[in-house]
Amino acid sequence: MKKLIFTTVIVLFCIAWLSAQNPSVRIKLYEEERFRFTDNRLEFLNPGNHIMIGDSAGAKIYPSALFNVYIGNRAGYTDTSGQFNVFIGNYAGTANTNGNRNTFIGTYAGLSNTTGLRNTYVGLSAGAFNTTGSYNTCIGRVAGYNNFEGSGNVFLGNAAGFNEMGSNKLYISNDETSSPLIYGEFDNSFLRLNSNYTELAGDVMAYGRIQANDRFNATGLPGQDDTLTYVTDIDFANNLLRYRTSIYTGGILTYTSNKSEWVGTVTDPVFSCGSIGVIGEFTGWGWDYLMVRDDSNPDLWSMYLFLTTANEMGTPDGIIEVKFRADKNWTVNWGSTEFPAGTGYQDGPNIPLPLNPNFDTTGYYITFNCATGEYVFTDVSR
Questions:
Q1: Which of 13, 201, 314, 334 would disulfide-bridge 324, Cβ 3.0–4.6 Å?
Q2: How confident is the model at residue 12 (pLDDT cuts 50, 70, 90)?
């Protein structure tokens, strides 16, 4: 033991003496200098200017590869000619062959990427199974996990976009849901907020149409979808009166009826039907998406409806079935097998709406006349 201690002291003394004579310590492999300790830093010396730390990290790199950083067990293991990649984490980017300018941080992040370019995956198994997609941003544990070849996606949050297979999608969520809190389609300039309540602190400017399928409130004005009925004429001799109805939407007058007949008392508002909604598979037949009454014709209603394969019930068949009904109940409802235009009738069959196979989201502009039952579905997918 005394000999071992003595030998160790001698070796340390020699290293200290050598360092004092030459502040750099060089390490050679196969007669070529590969590492150098200079002052307080470690320099990696290789033809491609790479930094590779970990068992088999960048093990198959070619001389043509440049400026990669691979840190972790088998990080960038099969890369041959990639450039400007940063893979940090066990098995991060392990299948990459010649994908360039990717940043994968986390165990199994970008695990299956082969030729994809300019992706950013941060989190355990983020973007794990995307092979050739490019320009994706997946931040969060298993974000974009099953997106195999999509490009241009942004998935933010734990498991965001977990099962999304397409491209140019936006998901902001904290689980695997197909209805994230914020969903978007960059190629269609489409944004959806899947929230039960949305509050904005500042002003909202719209250069197009604003439509509400349910209630809309403007503070300080008559209120949310107010219906006001008021007396216009009184016959005191016969104890009769006439009245009319005005409708305010968010405090804006959108409808005024004709005068009623002479009656003994004010009863129901003066228009032919109450609220009209569309119900169907897309809500699990549980609630209505309310339509908007036309300003000039109280019998005419309209709305936009957006559908995806996630809205199908039962065995997927590319068809979403819907019906029209009044006042959110089945007492008065309209259905028909005709599409895209037809005439619905009381207790008629479900109306079949086909999903457009050329788009991930199918959009319809719907008009309905509650006096005649006539309807039109216009495909506005884009």
A1: 334
A2: very low
DSSP character for 109? T
Q: Is residue 27 classed as helix, strand or coil in its secondary structure?
A: strand
Average pLDDT over residues 92-115: 97
How confident is the model at residue 85, as a pLDDT? Answer: 97
Q: Which of 152, 154, 94 is CA-nearest to residue 109?
A: 94
Q: Is the pLDDT of residue 4 over 50?
A: no
* 72 φψ region: left (φ > 0), alpha (ψ -120 to 50), beta (else): left
Please report which helix (H) or strand (E) contains residue 372, including its range: none
Mean pLDDT to the nearest integer, 86-111? 97
Do residues 142 and 123 touch, judged by C-beta distance below 8 A?
Answer: yes
Cα–Cα dist 290/248, whole Å? 16
Q: Are 64 and 49 in contact (CB under 8 A)?
A: no
Size (the chain), residues:
382
SS3 19: helix
- Rounded to whole angstroms, how far apart are CA atoms 158 and 137? 13
**For residue 163, what are the CA distances in angstroms to 67, 171, 183, 321, 371?**
33, 11, 14, 25, 44
Long-range contacts of 32-38 (CB under 8 A, 24+ apart): none
Q: Which of 104, 186, 105 is nearest to 150 (CA)?
A: 186
Domains of the chain plus CATH, in order, are 34-193 (2.150.10), 215-271 (no CATH), 276-379 (2.60.40.3620)
The pLDDT assigned to 30 comes to 63
Q: How confident is the model over 205-233, as a mean pLDDT?
A: 63
* Beta-bridge partners for 255: 247
